[in-house]
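Input chain follows. Return structure tokens only.
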Amino acid sequence: MTLVDTNVLIDLVQDDPVWASWSASQLFVAMQKGPLYINPVGYAELVPAFDTMAALDGFLKRAKINVKPISRPAAYFAGEAFLLYRKRKGTKTGVLADFFIGAQAQAEGWVILTRDSARYTSYFPSVPLICPA
């Protein structure tokens, strides 16, 4: 199962000239291997790209992506990652969206499809990634 990072979906919605092709092909490959998911944090990050909830839900339905709630263990892992981030002199004062995505993949034993791997490799090194070389 694959948890899709928001940046991959934004590439498709905005038809990004650099990344849309890569993102579409990687989504197709991941779909062949099993279900695709986002979590409520990823859902919230997608809201600015759509005029209505119905439009966003329609996009996810067409892309065959389901929204999976964040479990209590995943929320805990996200909090742990945030503590490590702060110890490393991170300046944000709230838990970052990527921490919820990485933590959910860790808790569920899923792969993350992303084109921005730096934070995941730093804070969730055991989570497998599908990302550009």
